[in-house]
């Protein structure tokens, strides 16, 4: 998902002031034991430090604490505790979590990039206990099996990861199969469009079927492609968000059986301390930043915490490479420029940044206001009131119908020789590989918020599922006041593949949407500026085109307009991976398959940064899975160690 526009943020701030003072009513009223905002003296040295209390970090630390009660484990998280927080527990509040001013978010500001019109892209991440899983829009989406096999990392193929993907979930959809899904895991998955606007979902599915994309029985079976489905969600039967902290961490902190598990919130991990080639602890600073932006807000008082056995860096795809670089682990040239002494020259750190890049576009809709969430955007409905009167809509996630798509052979051919060559290389061998995802929202979501949202609008997101564009993130100095340099690399691939795929997605979704019964035209600010007289020009209408209407005829000028628009609007869909990838050093790898940082003992990375490439799905599922798998790896290593003694 992309950043919310600032005007919208201001509005949400006003709406949120009151509700966030009240409890969610969801959490166990007993206080968590073991959560601190100041480091207690008895935790100045522990066995395992988990640097980042996000999605993978919470899963990893929790499972490890089960397997090894003899180890003291300390999670250090820059954000706050997420327990009893209404904006975390209640799904529709996720919209408020993408506010620039929200302290639950950490925004990485990109550099100006010439290929996208010298624009700087902002990328949002979660910064609260539970990380992205506490603030995201809860779409349940699993990796395609071929994606993990393609990594060619021993122990990380589809058949290796599938058991963990089942272990994390309780799949509450009767049409699912136990061969494919899990039924007794900590995360409740609520199925097939529950908690959402049914009419919109029905219309999208019918229109998609008319375009040759049927409704899938199970879009998350890890192989299905060229189909749509109502979104499954990380929500329980009461309509409450499922996140890594509530599903894994808080129950253990409250059950009295995990005195070994501790959490320090509101502290940054600055760097790992490396002595004699081994990680022996971390340096931390208090986070006094309430705004959620990256720069400023940290105190300068540094403290160290010792790690007798291991430091696991779990600060996410943007945080983890920075911790490594500040520790002296990274490309020696980058480190020299940042004034950091090199401990291990690892050029792969911070590179290989891959993200689901794409667009948001919007339409006028004949749906009445009670069938969209727009009331909370235009201020006619308050989230506070909805919460008070137990309005079921508070359980909506906004993300309604999703898909996995590939252009047909003839479409690939029509996209030109360069595109076709890239297609054959990346997609030719695996017919289940997802190229593109189109998803429909139950209301307005786009960077061009109208000042007066009088029409009912809804938005469509389109993202490139397996992009060729590559970016990077690197530190520019040794301290937190040195903002990192983030280059997204969006649309920088020489083949033009990602741009062409965005153009294809734009055309596909238009043909679908204009056939929906409640379609009332395009919302112009969120569409390309087509040349005068274009067949593709935005219109305002009373109803849809007939199902058998001819498709829009795009001229070369129209295609240029769509391409220009793609460069103007391309945005992050917040699923980035790859900045500390597994692989050999020769291939730019940072970690071995046991997640050890090359060249340093006792230092691992456990989050989405370890993935060599995107897995063609929204990314939370992979983060949960990585947390589970990493806990097994480390647990086995500690058992082996104990047996050796
Ligand atoms: C707005 C938004 C919507 C999304 N929607 C979906 C969705 O619907 N479905 C889906 O599958 N995925 C979604 N995602 C993506 C998904 O939530 C994330 O990719 C995933 O949660 C990342 O997991 P992680 O463990 O790698 O990192 P994170 O969960 O981001 O965890 C990293 C943690 O480290 C902390 N941290 C960072 N730096 C430091 C430091 N120096 N010291 C201490 N702590 C630090 C952070 O505060 C954070 O808590 C969304 C993401 C966003 C931002």
UniProtKB/TrEMBL annotation:
Domain Glucose-methanol-choline oxidoreductase C-terminal as annotated: residue spans: 467-626
Sequence intervals crossing the membrane: none
Superkingdom per UniProt: Eukaryota
Gene3D superfamilies: FAD/NAD(P)-binding domain (3.50.50.60), Glucose Oxidase, domain 3 (3.30.560.10)
Signal peptide start-end: 1-27
Keywords linked to the UniProt accession: FAD, Flavoprotein, Signal
Protein name as it appears in the record: Alcohol oxidase-like protein
